[in-house]
Amino acid sequence: MQAITETLQAGRRREELTFSFGPFRLVPRRQLLLQDGRPVKMGGRAFELLQLLVQRPGELVSKDELMEAAWPGTFLHDSNLKVNMWSLRRSLGDTQEEPVYIATVARRGYKFIAEVQASIGDVAAGLPHVEPAGLSRPPVVRGVVGREAEIAGIAEALIERRHITLAGAGGVGKTTVAIAAAQVFASRCRDGVCFVDLSTIADPMLFGTALVTALGIRGNSDNSMAAVLDYLRARQMLVVLDNCEHVLPAATMFAGRFVTDTSSSRLLATSREPLGTPTEHLVRLGPLGSPPPGRALAIGEAIKFPGVQLFVGRAAAWSNYQFVDDDCDAVARICHALDGLPLAIELAAAQIGRFTPRQLLALLDQNLGFRAPIIDAATPRHETLMATIDWSFKLLSQQEARLFGLLSVFSDAFEAEDAVFVAEAAGLTPVDVVTGLGSLVAKSLLNAQAQGAGLRYRLLDSTRRYAAERRLADPASRQALDRHARRMLALFEQSEEEWNWREPADWTERYLGRIADLRAALSWAFGADGDPVLGIRLTVAAVTLWSETAILSEAQARLETALGLAKSIACDDLLRAKLACALGWSLFYARKLSNENELAWLDAIAFSRSAGDVEYQQRALVGFAFYLLQIGQIPRAITHLEEATALGNRDRDLTATSEADRAWAWAQAFAGELSKSRLVLDRLTAAYSLAEGRSRKDANEVYRFITVRFNLPFVAWMQGQAEYAAKLADDAVEAADRGGHWVSQSNALGLAALPISLETGNLAALEHYTERLRRNLDRERISRWIPVERYFSACLRDLRGDLRAVEDIRAAIEELIDCRFLMRIGSYLAVLARAYLRQGRTKEARKAIARALRHQEDQGERWCRPELLRVEASVLFHEGEPLLAESLLQQALTEARAMGAKTFELRIATDLAAYWIATGRRPKAIRLLAPVYESFTEGFEVRDLVAASHLLQGARACA
From the CB of residue 430, how many other CB atoms can be counted at a distance below 10 Å? Predict the structure, then answer.
């Protein structure tokens, strides 16, 4: 065995040429950079640059050589090289004033200055993937200038205070300081740091949705704010709310509720004004220190001021600027004139290369009289920032200025291809856009960062707002919002196609990062000046993202809006069918299964028939049937499923056929047709294996493997295969766990693992699975499983002797009935009746079993009728009616045998045999129970079989 293991491990390692420097290893053939053995994310261009540099350590590599390596055969402005080199340095953590790895050689190129060792060595093939995290984590900041005291003070204050607001003017560096303080404090946060960028939302009503998305809370909570507080209550986490000022009422409301809630988590907010809660600890962030005017300073003295440090560092990074004594006065006066605002200083420093510091100072003197008319009651420092942005804007070429305005349509990070698409309507060519992006980054009007194989760009909040004003004033940019929405449509239609083949985690990371722009595009499309048909198409295209990430509450709201509009305007029926199907599924996981769900499915069926689309007709029929099963309308469900399976029989390529077969088998089991059900479920179980790959096809195979295994255990257990049923249920739970299929795992727990554990009397398993469902509800807050978890938790406590648990069982059942989650409700009520009987509460038991029988009859759930009759017989025994009880047990036995429910047959035979033994009919009891017991082939340690065995042994011993 050890030899086999070693052979397998050897097969997973490869001999690779590697370049090592510091904690890094570069593996060129695999386009891989490792830091301490972990993959480092970096853009493809940055990788090409690094590869060329490390292969020539200590040598000057010219700009032309680097441009040819990263952009072979393409002419681009050298600002693109600077952008990608800056991205590379950030990936290496080499952004300090004195570089460790890459040195700039002014106007000539770059040099790799660290020691590099080239070698041939083993590199593991199965390196860990960089998985997208559930939390939205803050970006990494390095090289923060002049804020050490503030950062340390905030991190220290967070130890004692639950809510801190960092307030200050726009451009003063609040975000940078907050992120840096969060990095310092992170070691005290057991559950991590969550960064919520509120500048990406324009509507305060989306505040709760933005929080839920950033925290990675999946599911369909009815109240986003309550869901967030519930999520944080059990965690030790730091939440950073950035840019609160334009959603201030919502942020204040959340902060007020947060600090009064019981939690170990902390809240760090940034805002231009305080949030105003009673317990808020306010930290006001002032400007960077700059030399006072009129004071003659040498370089050594001037560089001690943080404002000067920032200016010189940024100018050196972008323009190879060398700080000299003659420039001290001009640089000091520039920093002072800009009120020490870091963003304003960076914008000015970006112009070094075009202007000397003295020329720059003269230009600023001419322009800083500007007062932005769009800012009401702006602070002097904020006016300085807006004047500086305006001055930087006026220095742009006409094409750069138009592009800058156009980019304001993006709410979050975007790629060059996005900008090219939007800018096309304003007459800008792809070359104009790519060159302009590099120039805007070089001038600090635009940020760039590595993402996958390329760069993603982003406007800061202040610059985005200024750029939006300029866009509105530019007649050539009137179509920008329409182009932005169409770009989102193209992207999300592409996501639907890529969903079929792209690795799931990679797909989610790629498209979840677009959700802010998706929201903005939908808001515009459904607004007064928008395009409703485009909005409907975009809503349909976004369904896959909402479904894959389980952002169900947002999906439901968007789908209701789109479907309501689609019914009122000229629209394709297939689009209407897709919207109705998606709405039906989003409502399926709501706390209460309302009539809206039924109406959505009926719409879906009608629209798909009208469109003549058999694929969506089958999907709608299956979805509606699943809904009917949940609310306990078994005969109606079977009717629709027979239509769906008939469609599948005519065309086996329909994608919902296997789901139709599974649902039909499940419905037949509820109707008491166990043999029919088992035949189909066995076939489906054999058809789907547990694939181990990471592709979408593999994920779909795993999904089907899981789903059939939370239906089959129910049937196998009734047919007398308790061990097999328990194994199937556990297989489903574990497969879902390995794949991160939390919704499917909750289904497997609630529909298979927990009921099987309860009915077989395995309390250890019942406790284990209850805890797992409880943890799942933190990950995926699917409301309908909350009362299910409460029910099984209460059952566990009851079986362990807690006399108060019976009331919690009753309360959970009442909640399930209120939610219309009526599937199996008769069996739940039978469990309640048994619990009442154990406490001698016969009247309550009578009421519970009477309700159970009514539900069973009304719902057509014939499967549980023998068990309900058995429990009713127990009530009759307690009421002193043994003859009626005996008659009822014989009726129950006949019904159990008719449907092939061996487990119920055993229970009933055991109760009847016990009564016969007690009334002197021992031989008859043995003749009844022995053949039933002996027909079992497994599960002899299960509670029912143990009880039957003990009864038989006692009866035979006395015979």
Answer: 14
Cα separation, 628 vs 616, whole angstroms: 18
Q: Among all chains, which residue has been given the structure tokens 């609310």? A: 631
Tell me what pLDDT residue 76 has. Answer: 59
- Look up residue 267 and give its two tokens: 């809240």
Asked if 621 and 637 count as a contact pair (C-beta separation under 8 A), the reply is: no
Q: Could you tell me if 557 and 521 are in contact, meaning their C-beta atoms sit under 8 angstroms apart?
A: no
Element (DSSP H or E) covering residue 183? helix 174-185
Q: Contact, 428 vs 497, CB < 8 A?
A: no
How high is the pLDDT of residue 41?
67
**Sign of torsion, CA 801 941 729 649?**
negative
Q: Quick: pLDDT tens for 566-594.
A: 999 999 999 999 999 999 998 887 777 78
Are 616 and 581 in contact by the 8 Å Cβ rule? The answer is yes
User: DSSP states of 728-787 as a string?
Assistant: HHHHHHHHHHHHT-HHHHHHHIIIIIHHHHHHHT-HHHHHHHHHHHHHHHHHEE-TTHHH
768-782: average pLDDT: 86
Per the prediction, the chain carries an average pLDDT of 87
DSSP helix/strand/coil, 15: strand
pLDDT, mean of residues 303-325: 88
Indicate the length of the chain as a whole number. 959
240: β partners? 195, 268
- For 655, the 3-state DSSP assignment is coil
SS (H, E, C) 345-385: HHHHHCCECCECHHHHHHHHHHHCCCCCCCCCCCCHHHHHH
Pairing label, strands 163-167, 266-271 = parallel
pLDDT in tens, 511-546: 998 999 999 999 999 999 999 999 999 999 999 999
Type of residue at 227: A
Is the CA virtual torsion 632, 633, 635, 638 positive or negative?
negative
SS3 category, 167:
strand
Q: Which of 64, 41, 51, 67 lies closest to 434 in space, CA to CA?
A: 67
Instruction: With beta carbons less than 8 A apart as the criterion, state whether 938 and 723 touch.
Output: yes
Does the structure show a pLDDT above 50 at 130? Answer: no
What is the C-alpha end-to-end distance of the chain, expressed in Å?
Answer: 55
List beta partners, residue 194.
239
Looking at residue 571, what is its pLDDT? 92
Per-residue tokens: 78: 């050298």
The confidence score (pLDDT) of residue 80 equals: 66
Is the four-CA dihedral 153, 155, 160, 162 of positive or negative sign? Answer: positive
The closest of 632, 628, 563, 556 to 590, measured between CA atoms, is 556
pLDDT digits (tens, 9 = 90+) for 186-217: 888 888 899 999 988 878 888 988 898 888 88
| pLDDT on residue 100 | 84
What integer pLDDT is reported at residue 44 of this predicted model?
64
What gap in Å lies between CA 219 and CA 170, rounded to an integer? Answer: 36
Q: Is the pLDDT of residue 945 over 70?
A: yes
Q: What is residue 64's three-state secondary structure?
A: helix
Q: Residue 136: name the closest of 209, 229, 40 by CA.
A: 209
Torsion region of 194: left, alpha or beta (phi above 0 gives left; psi -120 to 50 gives alpha):
beta
**3-state SS class at 882:** helix
Task: Name residue, tokens 């998985």.
Answer: 131
pTM above 0.85, yes or no: no
Nearest alpha-carbon partner for 445 in 389, 487, 365, 391: 389
Residue with tokens 């340390």: 152
How far is it, in rounded angstroms, from Cα 250 to Cα 211?
11
What integer is the mean pLDDT of 314-339? 87
Let me know: does 900 contact 674? Beta carbons within 8 Å: yes
Q: What is the Rg, in whole angstroms, of the alpha carbon atoms belonging to the chain? A: 34
Q: What percent of the chain lies above the pLDDT cut of 90? A: 52
Return d(Cα 715, Cα 903) in angstroms, integer. 10
Q: Does 9 have pLDDT greater than 50? A: no
Task: Indicate the residue type of 517.
Answer: D
